[in-house]
Write a structure and sequence with these properties.
The strands form 3 sheets. This protein has a 6-stranded mixed beta sheet with strand order 1-2-3-4-5-6. The chain has a two-stranded antiparallel sheet with strand order 7-8. It is built from 13 helices and 10 strands. Helix 1 runs antiparallel to helix 2 (17-24). With 332 residues, it is α+β, with helices and mostly antiparallel strands.
Length: 332
């Protein structure tokens, strides 16, 4: 019988990985014993949770209670291949609040590609549960099951879906157009880098504006662009980028307190303490950057072709975007 998604979500929230894989997904119990890997002078223990035809699920719960950062997780993963070439690693924190699931795609003739999914117990777990359903096995499959088939299931569960790939392909094209509008930076490489910085910021803002977090306006950016153009004239002094967007990023979303004049310009916007909206080194080094309004009109046309969901809901149509997609873009 198919797995019960509700029980999968419950096991995730309870950090019950034995119950999840053995009871719900039909995996086998692993041999006893842990795998120890050494990375940058620290030792991490990988405890086998379950296995299927040689593919192993490891649990990494660091003794200091802190999930290692992305570069460290990549090094741990490479060490884990010595114990099990095909594997999944689940990282958990000491308070059992957060999980990071790590799987790496390995295909002959292609570079490896890491796929990571974060889960916090306050979330519904629906998106991760949907992925894990692909890893369920039934008794009727046992006799013919191979390691290649199990690895294929993992690829189906964790590899980037076609919606994400399609969005990323379009994103690359839009990025190539956007950076041509950037002036005030001499180096071609730095202009491309700054275009990425701006597009990453704008994508993040699209998520929060669609939730109504920016002055209660789900089309906040486009409406503010129009307002600036009506006030100053289209592309008059590149009004939107310099006189609105940078102030939104650096003074609105990136710092507090704010002046009444700034509140009048931006409306009610949240303070986001994360560094994404701080003054970037390229902005500090190149104080004459300008970007024409036309660049933002094109980007907003692109973004508006998609539905932006800040929650974990599974993607059901070809024009939905969730934080998993954003994570993939940031990774690239």
């Amino acid at each position: 019988m198919p797995p019960d998604r509700g029980r999968i979500r419950q096991a995730l929230k309870e950090f019950d990985f034995d119950g999840l894989f053995i009871e719900e997904l039909g995996w086998d119990r692993p041999p006893t014993g842990t795998v120890e890997v050494s990375v940058d002078g620290s030792t991490y223990r990988l405890a086998p949770v379950a296995h299927k035809r040689g593919m192993v699920v490891f649990l990494c719960a660091p003794s200091n209670g802190t999930i290692p950062n992305h570069p460290t997780r990549s090094k741990i993963e490479r060490q884990a291949t010595k114990a099990a070439h095909e594997h999944i690693i689940i990282y958990t924190d000491g308070g059992k609040e957060t999980q990071i699931w790590q799987w790496v795609r390995r295909e002959p003739g292609r570079p490896t590609a890491s796929r990571q999914h974060s889960f916090h117990r306050s979330q519904s777990g629906e998106a991760l549960a949907q992925k894990l359903e692909a890893l369920a096995f039934e008794l009727s499959e046992e006799d013919s099951l191979t390691i290649a088939a199990v690895a294929g299931r993992a690829r189906h569960a964790f590899d980037v879906d076609r919606v994400t790939k399609r969005f990323y392909d379009r994103f690359k094209s839009e990025h190539a157009d956007f950076f041509k509008f950037v002036t005030g930076i001499q180096s071609l490489g730095d202009r491309e880098w700054y275009a990425s910085v701006m597009l990453n910021r704008l994508m993040f803002v699209y998520f929060i504006q669609k939730k109504g977090f920016l002055d209660g306006d789900t089309d906040y950016l486009r409406n503010r662009l129009r307002a600036m153009q009506q006030r100053s004239g289209k592309d008059n002094f590149f009004s939107f980028y310099r006189h609105f967007l940078l102030r939104l990023f650096h003074e609105g979303l990136g710092q507090r307190p704010r002046t009444s004049a700034l509140d009048e310009l931006l409306g009610k916007v949240p303070y986001l303490n994360g560094g994404l909206f701080d003054v970037h080194e390229l902005e500090a080094q190149n104080t004459a950057i300008e970007i024409a309004d036309e660049a933002f009109e094109k980007v907003f046309d692109f973004f508006d072709a998609y539905q932006w969901h800040l929650d974990e809901r599974p993607l059901r149509t070809d024009n939905e975007i969730n934080p998993d997609v954003l994570g993939y873009i940031f990774e690239k």
